[in-house]
Write a structure and sequence with these properties.
About 35% of the residues lie in helices and about 15% in strands.
Length: about 375
């Protein structure tokens, strides 16, 4: 199989879909790897690193898309990239379709087979290809939140850890999954007063058993959420419903109850965001103000630490990539129901229920799609 890896073109996205070592592993399975020149530069990988591992480096994305049987990326294809997809091609990347009807329509019209990292599952009910970036984003969230709180950025001028004689900042993390747990651990390590909100009692029990000395937790009723958000200096949104649009858990009206200059970091923004006032921003212009509350809503947060993120991501994607390449997408998905969960679009059909529900589009079951 010919496997292509183009440069990422989303603003300030420095990750790359394949590291040189990943390309080498794929090449050793007797597949051709085509990499766009400069694709790895942002993560610290040179063209020579790829050629040393047996990859062919080409000048343009157009050449990658025209040549490859499977396209491997990091972020969802941008409009110009979607026009280059074709019916007999496989796309393997993050898609986050639920809040993005335009992308969904374009992918369906392309006829390509699109497998989304974020909906591939595992035996434990986890999301193994989303987890590495959730870990990175969770660990970044308190860091960027602390920066947003600086007065020069419009924030309250709060140091999260405080100093002797001055209390720490209050951090509320909405969601106790992978993102929320990592965010809480880092915020607590910075010295902040941290509370995690979640609706899963088993998850709250786990957090209490594992981290009770580091941070507290509360059941995420509407009243408790409103109370703690009003008291917080920093609120981190870390809620995920796999493949679906994020629920809106903090309304615009609630902003008036918050402290002037308080900060919001919405890690769920790539699924539409969990604050009513959230809108996607970029690393170039990450912060905006709504009613005196500073919002940080960058949709590709892990792109800021591109080398760490790329290596962590490709460590997770490699086994699935090899399976798709060695067996072909249909046989690989037929043999692995967890990989089949990643199938979102095939031959013009939407194949992921949560996306169809969010966008009001009829869905074909992935099992039926295998037979098309």
């Amino acid at each position: 199989m010919k496997i292509g890896c183009p440069s990422e073109i989303k603003p300030q996205e420095f990750r790359v879909g394949m590291t040189p070592s990943t390309a080498g592993e794929v090449a050793r399975h007797n597949h051709d790897v085509i990499v766009q020149s400069g694709a790895g530069n942002g993560a610290g990988f040179t063209d020579q690193d790829y050629t040393d591992q047996g990859a062919l480096v080409v000048d343009s994305a157009a050449e990658v898309f025209a040549t490859a049987d499977m396209i491997v990326k990091v972020k969802e294809p941008q409009a110009v990239e979607r026009k280059m997809l074709r019916e007999d091609q496989v796309l393997f990347t993050y898609l986050h379709l639920a809040p993005d009807p335009e992308q969904t329509r374009d992918l369906m019209e392309s006829g390509a087979t699109c497998i989304a990292y974020e909906t591939v599952t595992d035996d434990n009910g986890g999301l193994p290809l989303l987890a590495p970036m959730s870990e990175v984003a969770g660990r970044l969230a308190p860091q960027v939140g602390a920066w947003t709180l600086q007065k020069a950025n419009g924030g309250r001028g709060i140091l999260l850890g405080g100093v002797p004689g001055v209390g720490p900042g209050k951090v509320v993390v909405i969601g106790g999954g992978v993102v929320g747990t990592h965010a809480a651990r880092i915020a607590a390590g910075m010295g902040a007063d941290v509370t995690v909100l979640d609706r899963s009692l088993p998850r709250l029990r786990y957090l209490d058993d594992a981290f009770s000395r580091d941070f507290g937790n509360r059941y995420a009723s509407a009243a408790t959420t409103a109370e703690l958000v009003a008291e917080a200096d920093l609120v981190i949104g870390a809620v995920l419903i796999p493949g679906a649009a994020a629920p809106k858990l903090v309304s615009r009206a609630q902003l008036s109850t918050m402290k002037p200059g308080a900060a919001i970091v919405d890690v769920a923004i790539d699924q539409g965001g969990c604050f009513e006032t959230s809108k996607a921003t970029t690393h170039e212009d990450p912060i905006y103000d709504v009613d005196g509350i500073m919002h940080y809503c960058v949709a590709n947060m892990p792109g800021a630490v591109a080398r760490t993120s790329t290596i962590a991501l490709t460590n997770a994607t490699l086994p699935f990539l090899l399976s798709l390449a060695d067996k072909g997408w249909a046989d690989a998905c037929a043999e692995d129901p967890h990989l089949l969960e990643g199938l979102n679009v095939h031959k013009g059909k939407l194949t992921y229920y949560a996306v169809g529900k969010a966008l009001g589009i009829d869905v074909t079951s992935p099992q039926l799609a295998l037979k098309l």
